[in-house]
């Protein structure tokens, strides 16, 4: 679900709201209740990238744990 940035011109508060694209945009400020909220142009949160790539720690090679007994892995 995309994350949208909003800013209220009434009180100046800035907040983020997560809702589907099909949902209507936020118009009323949750802080002051004024209908002066406008959606900010942002790309943050729309695309999730990089989190899955570096999250998993890489397993040590067999040589590091003594599993390679004859240089079969090419590192010995
Ligand atoms: Zn406000």
* Apparent shape: rod-shaped
Which strand order spans the largest sheet, edge to edge or round the barrel?
Answer: 2-1-3
- The CATH architecture term of the domain at 1-43 is Single Sheet
Unreliable stretches (pLDDT < 50, length at least 5) are none
Relative strand content: 15-25%
Number of strands: 3
| Ions, cofactors and other bound molecules | zinc ion
Could you describe the 3D structure shown?
This protein has 76 residues and is an all-beta fold. It has a domain at 1-43: Rubrerythrin, domain 2, CATH 2.20.28.10. Helix content is 0%, strand content 20%. It has no helices and three strands. It has a three-stranded antiparallel sheet, with no helix packed on it. β1 and β2 form a beta hairpin. The structure holds zinc ion. Zinc ion binds next to loops.
Give the helix/strand layout.
Elements: E1 3-8, E2 14-18, E3 37-40
Antiparallel strand pairs: 1-2, 1-3
The protein binds zinc ion.
Features:
mainly beta; 3-stranded antiparallel beta sheet; 76 residues; binds zinc ion; 0% helix; single chain; Rubrerythrin, domain 2
